[in-house]
Write a structure and sequence with these properties.
Elements lengths: L1 H17 L3 H25 L7
Keywords: Coiled coil, Plasmid
């Protein structure tokens, strides 16, 4: 899941470098980065690295 978001972020960054509509692409990039941060946080909460006892 995070891999797809990371790919999306890289694509948006590439578009941002070449874009005329920077605001829209920047907004999409911000959303994708927030989604990635949320997914990483969720994964870190999902996996309990401590033994259950």
């Amino acid at each position: 899941m995070t891999y797809d978001i990371e790919i999306q972020i890289e694509e948006l960054r590439a578009e941002l470098r070449n874009a005329g509509e920077r605001r829209q692409i920047q907004a999409e990039l911000d959303v994708a980065q927030a989604e990635l941060a949320a997914a990483v946080d969720l994964q870190s909460e999902t996996f309990d690295w401590e033994p259950p006892y």
